[in-house]
Amino acid sequence: MISLSRRGELEMSQRSMGSKVWAILSPVLVVIALGALSTVRLEVPRIVIDTPVIETRDRFMGLAVVDDVIWVVGKDGKIVRSEDAGKSWVSQSTGLNTNFQSIAAWDEQTAVVVANAGKGLITSDGGQTWEEVSLPVSDIGSGKVLRVRLDPQGRAWAVAELNVIMRSDDRGRTWQRVTQDDNDAAWNDIAFSGPGSACAVGEFGRVACTVDDGATWEERPVDLEPSLMSVRFRDAEHGLAVGLSGTVLATDDAGANWRVVEVPELDQHLFDVIWTGTRWIAVGDKGVMLTGDAGATHWETGRVQSGDFSWHIALARQGAGFVTVGLNVGRWEAGQWELFGPRRH
């Protein structure tokens, strides 16, 4: 018989030997297990997140509408296009990463874009390809070109910082500056009352008009400090200009004289104005929408969408309504607002 003490020694020896064997075998078992796992095929579900064409971070500055085709341009070289009145959108690549300020389109295929630093783009295939062009901005300043418009003859006119007004007779490919002197004020918009006749509006309440196709410009005396941001004519005689701090001007003689229009309780900045065929509509800061009659005597102030304080910097007629862009993009018709792209919170 084995004594109790001897039995205890044997058990301790066996446990010690087992520990040593496990210490030797455990790394081997781990390697074997890992090898087995490496042969197991794990099926991981594929999740594709599509980036929306219009994003909440976008800031749009201009648009052009031709029937159901809508082009929208904005910051960081972004151009988006819809061919079904805003139901669906595609992003267009240009290779130019700068802030686009404005766009004008002759038809569904042909358009011109103006941008910062005297840059521009033209397309003749609906935006499938874009060609970079240079615009004759001032040698000083940032060279920001702020707006491009088409005249009754189908020529493109653009306005910029430092008293620059320019014209293109070949759909934006080449440009000629029609103002010669630089001064420390920008022109923000230009509109046409007829062939060869136009008015430009700009900083510090400036208005200047030409009746000889831009060869000479005559400043109009307007006693205003707020900058004027947009101007349009509804016929050969009647026009409207809007600007900062709720400024509204009207003319009844093709821009020879301008009168201040008082709109009660309006102090928001106005950035763009259009004539719809029946009334004036202007949009601006904090979601404001201003509507007025042909004579610019009766006005209503509201919002593009109730509760939406997004700024809108440009608008264009589309069907029986209008499309406007800025902090968001959408279409307004008969009091209904349709937002294109994601909603901001």
Give a topology summary.
Elements: H1 4-38, E1 60-66, E2 69-74, E3 79-82, E4 90-92, E5 100-105, E6 111-115, E7 119-123, E8 131-134, E9 145-150, E10 156-160, E11 165-168, E12 176-177, E13 187-194, E14 197-202, E15 207-210, E16 218-219, E17 228-233, E18 239-243, E19 248-251, E20 259-260, E21 270-275, E22 280-284, E23 288-292, E24 299-303, E25 312-318, E26 321-326, E27 329-333, E28 336-340
Antiparallel strand pairs: 1-2, 2-3, 3-4, 5-6, 6-7, 7-8, 9-10, 10-11, 11-12, 13-14, 14-15, 15-16, 17-18, 18-19, 19-20, 21-22, 22-23, 23-24, 25-26, 26-27, 27-28
Question: Can you describe this structure?
Answer:
The protein has 345 residues and is mainly beta. It has one domain (60-340): Methylamine Dehydrogenase, Chain H, CATH 2.130.10.10. It contains one helix and 28 strands. The strands form seven sheets. It has a four-stranded antiparallel beta sheet with strand order 1-2-3-4, with no helix packed on it. Strands 5-6-7-8 form a four-stranded antiparallel beta sheet, with no helix packed on it. A four-stranded antiparallel beta sheet has the order 9-10-11-12, with no helix packed on it. Strand 15 (207-210) and strand 16 (218-219) form a beta hairpin. The model has no long low-confidence stretch (mean pLDDT 90).
* CATH-defined superfamily: YVTN repeat-like/Quinoprotein amine dehydrogenase
Largest beta sheet: what is the strand line-up? Answer: 1-2-3-4
**Average predicted local confidence, pLDDT:** 90
Query: Number of folding domains?
Result: 1
Q: Please write the string of helix (H) and strand (E) elements.
A: HEEEEEEEEEEEEEEEEEEEEEEEEEEEE
Per CATH, the class reads Mainly Beta
DSSP strand count? 28
Q: Architecture, according to CATH?
A: 7 Propeller
> Which outline best applies?
globular
Strand content: 35-45%
Biggest sheet architecture: 4 strands, antiparallel
Structural class based on helices, strands and sheet pairing? mainly beta
The number of helical elements comes to 1
Please name the CATH topology: Methylamine Dehydrogenase, Chain H
Query: Cα-atom Rg, whole angstroms?
Result: 32 Å
